[in-house]
Amino acid sequence: VTTRRAWAQLIAGAFAALRARAQVRAFPGDRADALRALAAAILPGELGRAGTDRIADRFGEWVRGYRAGADTEHGYGFPRVRSKPDLPVARYLQQLDALGRAPTAAAVAQALEEAKITALPGSPSGAHIAADLLSFYFNSADANDLCYRARIGRDACRGLTGSDRPPQALGQ
Amino acid sequence: MKRHESDICVIGGGISAAMFAEKLAELKPGVAITIVEAGKSIFDFDNRGRYRERYAAYGENPWPEDFIEDQSAKGIISRTMAVGGSALHWGGTCNRFSMEDLRLRSMYGLGVDWPIEWNELERYYCEAERRLGVSGEPGPFPEDRRSEPYPMAPMTLSHNLLELKKWAEKSDIPFWGTPQAKNTVPYGGRAACVRCNTCSICPTGARYSPDFTFKQLLATKKITLHDQTLVRKLVLDDSRATIALAEARDRRNPEEPVEYRAKTFVLAAGYTWSPHLLLLSRSSRFPEGLANRSGLVGRFMNGHAFLTAQMELDAKIYPGMNEQYGLISRQFFRCKPDAPFARHDLRIWESSAGRQPRLRGTDGKILLGDDLLADWRARAQRGAARVRAYYDVHPSRDSALTLDETSRNRFGDPLPKIEHRLDDATQARLPAMRQHIQGVFARLAHAGNARILSTSDSNYLDHPAGGCRMGNDPTASVCDSHGRTHDHENLYVVGAPTLPNAGCTNGTLTFVALTLRSAAKIAATLVLVVCCALQAQPPRAPQPELLWPEGAPGAVGQQDEDKPTLTAYLAGSPNGTGVIVCPGGGYRNLAIDKEGTQFAQWFNSLGISAFVLKYRLGPRYHHPSMLQDAQQAIRTVRSRAVQYKLAPDRIGIMGFSAGGHLASTAGTHFDSRDVRPDFLILGYPVISMNSEFTHQGSKTNLLGERPDPQLADQMSNDQQVTKDTPPTFLFHTNADTGVPAENSVRFYMALRKAGVPAEIHIFERGPHGVGMASTDAVLSAWTSLLANWLRERGLLR
Question: Which residue of A has its CA nearest to B163?
Fold first, then answer.
């Protein structure tokens, strides 16, 4: 009986993993518009609707490219190797559904309060899709440029020439 | 079981192993070097761009599979176990220590002194910087003077760093760019830096990593590399305290043991795995592990502590311009001996501390969209700096790496546990040390109108080292200054483990400099081994050739002793220099092997062709037969310069003892250009024939029982030196009672008086006739000194 139960659990676990992986690969599926609406509600208006749509789409790409179980950087002086946790895409989708097709900033703030999100995650952590979308954008090199209104290009290979001068202003 | 044999077996495949192998292969072409590394080779440079993208987007490990799951440790370690080691990930910072780090005991009564002089280490720092490719600018302090410029110009200070430098120097503390192993121009076959901001995975290869060196060594077949092979134990010879073999397992085929046999073993596995392997290699003969007669293997594990401050200041800082590059000041590297001990470096980087985007405002309300951006922008108005001081702390004996019997790898070997402990003196001064650094932080803040946002103390020792500390006293150290273990003459430890203390700045450059010094030493000791190996192959042995095919002038018979010969040892890669070698033996015998063949082989390893001269001897012959033979040898070699690929103006003569007399005679009694040697190398030579310092046997054999005093004067070569005498290198020992050192000293003084370039080395210890002294850790340095002299005279081109 124990063996049969163990097998059943194993098979159920394998199915769950396959379903989760399929959800990751298909994200956001038929909720693309809802994700874009969420981005428009919580990202800076300066970006314009086209800009927020683009970031929503990039976030979708990012989720689809996520590899649960990949080793994280351990580098120098980190005695333990950690793996990337699962990304709870099913929960993302539920949270999107709960926010509706045209969420307001106030509704999102309320949802984050209820989810007890106290700080902007350093990187998307799966606690709430709104927090993770905010993290995805505001921790990006593009957001850094927007904040400083300058072409810093933090993640780009930019050459050393001219680096002794302030970066160009955005729009120049 | 698989068996592998080599001349040198290097255990570990990190930056020390790379530098060691590269240098040894240069000094000893043809020596078989096998490198055994537990981790994988990650030689996929083409994939670096992709790895970097994954790292930047997802925080994934940019060096996939660079660790071994079950090969871990308790304590602060780097998990990286791959060909290249921790220097795959490193930031490339290449600071030097200072003289104070080597003289803690004599200057401050703290810790121990290192068994090495600063000036010597400085030369190896230069070499390390050349090999790694370091860009930097010299600091303003005279104590930091350098004997060579940095190989590359410093990296451009970013706008942020220029602002921070302007701000920081208001405190009257000078700052400049931190030297880094990053190319500012293409160098070493690698590209220049293009400021990608991800130095832990450099997509262009501008930041040095050892995989480049290993790939080059493999491409030129200078090493054999066995990766994914874990050495588990070193095994002794049955009857001697030398290492016979290393037992290993290939992780791809773990059931089959692998055995490495070598003449010399070099442990280059870093501060964790080097002492760990020595402890693992315990046996009934050495129950505490190998090289551990002192009980200090795994002891005095060290590193430095640090204090960090985040400061907010009036400067327009754009976070992300070049976050990996920073400023350094060495103003606090020195501490007056009569002042409270406080030594540290001082570093500044751009920072975004306190000005990252945040989800909740000061009132606790959630911020979204424009509100979040506005809040961020408001807080980003002022700039920020991260300021850090790495400060000098010293380990206690209890600062230890031990075997953790409760934690084992897949083979059942206990894994290491590291617990750092500071000695009592360090503990006692920690509050004052921290107060001093806080004062420096306050000085920076006050002078530059900055606000200290936070200060944090380290909870671990950074840039760790130690575990096999070096020293002259075998009861208080594991190895000597070259890394040779006191207990096992063919076992060396190189790099980080040998450091007695970790200074107050990054240690990698020091690890490499010490390793290069070890490589030079090991290369010198390999001569005997190489000679023996070559002598075992008679078909390849050079054959003697009659010096006078038509018969030697004044020959009194047809015996072998009437037929002087010259044996040519031609360099595989000739550099144009040739040396005629005159063995000693009191003008009665010839130490052909010890003072002839061995040196010929050694010269060949430097690219110099050598010619061993068997000259005529007393009492059958007397002067001038010997000189005729030496001059004929010079004439012969010079006449065949094209055939031997020699420059006719780079043909010297070397001699030992009576052979030294003959060589010095050739250098002082030539009557035409074609028999004048271009340089002299004299080992414990007989020089005088008319003083109490002469060697009577040599004198009698050369000049007869009752020589004419005028002839004795004429053959006292110190009296025959002129400005035309060739440049000369002299080596002697103070303890030589057979041929007193006065012989060399007199010759040197005569050369000096005549204005002839000369170098003399007199070692305190050592009897007459030591030859290469390969088994003497101190005396054997003389051949390295000779190589330096040859190099400086342009004879190793």
Answer: A164
